[in-house]
Specification:
Length: 252
Amino acid sequence: MFNAKNLVRLLLAAAVTFEAQAAPVAPDPNKLLEQSDMARGGGLKGVQLNSSVTEIRDGQPGSELKLQIQAAATDSLISFTEPPRVRGNRMLMQGRNMWFASPDVRKPVAISPRQRMLGEASNGDIATTNYSRDYDATLVGEGTVDGRSVWVLDLKAKSGSVAYDRIRYFIDKENALGIKAEYFAVSGNVLKTARIEYDNHVRHDGRTVRFVSRMEIADALEPSKRTILKYWDVKVDDISSATLSLANLTRN
């Protein structure tokens, strides 16, 4: 015999079951962050690449630096190659500590990842990314960026020796690539935003994976103030511990 109440119960149960099956499984935010880091050099046993940093003002390119970057695990060496006036300058990052050296300086000088290198780019922006080491991640939502479905992570600094106190990070659901970032000051205000592209490819663990090719950083209050970082000639390779040694930073 037809029972309306039973029919309603069945329909409600079916709707709940369908919703549970359709809802995407929320990832572990720290594991997702660790996975996304690899496409920006974090966690790889060794990588070397070339980079340029170009300041843009009112749509016109201005000052530019060219760099060679060598990195392994949590350490990075950045060698300045152009223009000639900065050739021979170096920056070394070991964990969360950073030093600068130049041919006319006898001893390395401790510097902060928060210091500005050129335009909107800080020292910490240049080194390979290891957000999973430096930040605690919380999944705060979902959204879209340029039509792509993303997970939204809130990253809180584990210490004061990193480039930013807090980051809102947008990670593509399809490939776990971080495609947008918003960088916050201690005050809670947004300092800068960034868009990130991945058109490079490297071989890692027997497979081809995408790697960062371009990053555009803009001032949050004056978006016309932009800095573009480009990356090319990326190779996954062993980097010796001597290359990333503080004792060797001032040696040619």
